[in-house]
Amino acid sequence: MPGAIQAEGLVKTFGDVKALDGVDLEVPEGTVLGLLGPNGAGKTTTVRCLTTLLRPDRGRAVVAGIDVLKHPDAVRRSIGLSGQFAAVDEYLTGRENLQMVGQLYQMRAKAARARADELLEQFHLADAADRTAKTYSGGMRRRLDLAAALVVHPPVMFMDEPTTGLDPRNRQQLWDVIKDLVSGGTTLLLTTQYLEEADHLAHDIAVVDQGKVIAQGTSDQLKARTGGERVEVVVHDREHIRTAAALLDKYSLRGTGQGDTTVEEHMRKITTPVSGGAKLLAEIIRELDADGIEIDDIGLRRPTLDDVFLSLTGHVAESAQSDDEEAAK
Ligand SMILES: Nc1ncnc2c1ncn2[C@@H]1O[C@H](COP(=O)(O)OP(=O)(O)O)[C@@H](O)[C@H]1O
Ligand SMILES: [Mg+2]
User: Fold this and answer.
1) 285 C-alpha to center of ligand 1: Å?
2) How many angstroms does the Cα of residue 52 sit away from the middle of ligand 1?
3) Domain 230-301 belongs to what topology?
């Protein structure tokens, strides 16, 4: 089965900036692709090309089975787009915003009203439905923007940095909403600067840098390439270090070429690459305890987007901070 989203060799130049330098993507139907990359990597440009807002200089794209360059109108009718900069009208209420979108899609007034109510409920905005969007918090605006993209039932959705600038609680809420959406069978392409977000939401992750996809795979595969997750243990007694290392080695992720358990004798520290996160950590603590090995410290070190970038490109990604500050203004 062909992907719900396919792009081949997308190139887009702005003056002397090569925003896209041959982007290839494929998103199988019903799955989520996370387009992960730092500021300026080309994420928004990719989304704009795939959603007909921008014409690539070169390359081709098919979305929902329709050629994007040949039939942009038909593509537009099959997709939903939730933008990095919300397409919400500040001076309309939440309800009016959603009804307006329905009318743009030529729904009957009654149907548009019913759909608006349904979405306001689903996105926890019912209580604020009759307030102007101007009075909404950042999180509420994002949810309204997302709801607006779902007024008609698009088989393919694009979300450009849906949670950038949100606080952790709002980010979590939005993740839940997105997960619900995807469990309903929607194909989703999502851009993000956060590995953690791609990790939570995406089946597959494509890492973009300087207009190119530089790596693609599941989150575990990408993490493994960066050295992956590690458990670090500091034992209390130096004489326990070998027993503890042997125990930890059982949990070590082998065959990744990343090396196995390492012991730093003088620090009483053992490090082992793992996959399985917090659950595994609890198990290791129980086993060490059962063996009577006292520990001074134990922790899970997860690779960050910076680690992934450093390992893939040899240069540090620009921090996500700047964009957060931007969005917070
Ligand atoms: N309309 C535009 N005019 C000029 N340069 C642009 C335009 N849109 C994007 N760019 C440039 O293209 C590159 C990729 O931008 P963008 O796709 O917005 O990246 P991202 O969304 O990953 O932050 C950046 O260098 C950006 O400055
Ligand atoms: Mg962007």
Assistant:
1) 47
2) 16
3) Alpha-Beta Plaits (3.30.70)
Decide which of 48 and 225 is more confident: 48
Residue 100 CA from chain centroid, whole number: 29
Mutation pick for ligand 1 pocket among 44, 54, 321 (CB with most ligand atoms within 8 Å): 44
Helix, strand and coil in the chain, % to nearest 5:
40, 25, 35
Site residues for ligand 1, CB cut-off 6 Å? 14, 17, 19, 37, 39-45
Token pair in block for residue 211: 């207009």
Q: Residues with beta carbon < 5 A to ion ligand 2?
A: 43-44
The residue whose CA is least distant from atom 8 of ligand 1 is: 45
Q: Quickly name the fold that domain 3-224 has.
A: Rossmann fold (3.40.50)
Which pLDDT does position 250 carry in this prediction? 87
- The token duo for 235 is 């034992």
Most confident option among 114-118, 168-172, 255-259, 279-283: 114-118
Q: What is the pLDDT of residue 43?
A: 96
Backbone angles phi, psi at 214, to 5 degrees: -100, -10
Q: What is the pLDDT of residues 254-279, one digit of tens each?
A: 655 445 788 999 999 998 888 777 78
Residues of the chain with CATH 3.30.70: 230-301
Supply 272's token pair. 């082992």
Atom of ligand 1 nearest to the CA of 38: 22
